[in-house]
Amino acid sequence: MRLFPNLVRGLRFRLTVSYLLLFSALLIVIGLYFRHSLQVQTEGDVRAVLEEVWGEAKGYLRIENYRPHWIADQTDPEDAHIVERLRYVILLTDSSGNVLIDSPAYESIGIDSPEEIRRIMALKEPEVHVRSDAAGTPYIIKAGVMPDDRGQKYFFAIGRSLADSVRTVKTFTRDYFLSLLAIIPLTGLLGWVLAGRAIQPVNEVAQAAQKITGSNLSLQIPLRGSGDELDHLIGSFNRMTTRLEDSFEQIRRFSTDVSHELRTPLTAIRGQLEVALFTAQTPEQYRDAMVNALEDVEQLSSIVRALLLLSQAESGQVVLQKTMLDIGAVAEDVVDQFQIPAEEKKVRLTARIEPGVAIPADRIQIERLFSNLLSNAVKYTPAGGTVHVRVSREEDWARIEIEDTGVGIAAENLPHIFDRFYRVRNPETNLIQGLGLGLSFVAWIVKAHGGQIDVASTVGAGTRFMIRLPAEVGAGLPVNERHEVQSTG
Ligand code: ADP
User: Fold this and answer.
1) What residues contact 368, with CB distance under 8 A and at least 6 apart?
2) Best of 381, 420, 433, 439 to mutate for ligand 1, by most ligand atoms within 8 A of CB?
3) pTM value?
4) What is the Å distance from ligand 1's center to 409 Cα?
């Protein structure tokens, strides 16, 4: 029961039906066209014969003394034949309709009424028309005027049967349309086979696609090599699964990273609480353990907060509170906050801030932008290195640069550093803690302010982030435009 509706809805069925309908309509139109041509052609032949006999009749028939007679040589068989032919469908009457000559064939189509005779005799030229006898056999008749030796006018009509022409056309029509009864089902069958063959590769692709699941996204559907639309589709599909695989991989990596990041403080909290429970004896010892545990709880909360905030930001739930903000002053504050961590790492942190660079911006987000970039710069710069911050005005833009002499980022990693949860994995960075969310925030903040961010980096030499934020209200890139990261290695 289910097979039938499936079959009818299938592409193969619909292709076959469309092909069949089109082909049948075409065959019918062609048949009708040929039928019409045949009719015109055969009727044309009869008309030509009619003209011939009309001319011959004028030569062979004379009316003298009100009596018609044939001027043929009775001994000449050819003449006798011609006259015989002329007399087949013939009518001669005087102007009142009194019959002088007629033939049984003409009688079968009906002798013209006196009114009809008068009408035709009043015409300048003879008239050609078609009439049928009682059995439906059509005759083509040419009727006009024939004068006698005294100039008196008579009504003269001569005709030929169209039976042969009609029969030819009928036979053609019957044979042609009967043959269609055989051709159309055969065509349908052929269409079904051809549609099946055309659709076969699509079915193969569908089967191959069905084998792809979340756990084997690296499976690619082989290209057929024909370079056609289907190959194009397979290519797009393969690229899609590659992108999906990347996303799956990112999510997998993220889950690992998050659990790792959460596990470290959780283990520490557990350890501290266990130690306190089993070994602490004085209130001070309990207090110390709880303070340490609280610090780790704070770290846990900050990770969770960061995740929540980023997902809110990226899903458009964070509304910017823009005011005219002196971003140089913000930069100075953040640089001050990072002096101690920088000193601890023996990294020199310097800044050159142009005064009065004010732009419409959200203070909290700009602070986060500086602090994420500075935290990275300090984190990824070994002892003895420097980090330099610059804020300046460049036409209608505020320009921010944060440059370090740190480990650098390899060219192949550069395009991904703004991706959520992306972290460069190498011996230099593996021991440095992070969730891979900092730069995702930075990218979102720049984009939300209508700005641009570029990064240039050389492995082992350092990294430079350059940000331009529009200084005019409503200037810069539209907020929903994707940020373009131009990277130079
Ligand atoms: P993380 O929490 O790992 O620092 P980010 O999103 O802030 O995450 O940065 C993504 C990755 O980009 C980092 O893991 C690091 O490898 C690289 N990166 C970011 N800033 C710097 C920098 N100043 N120098 C070298 N590498 C950097």
Assistant:
1) 441, 445
2) 439
3) 0.50
4) 8
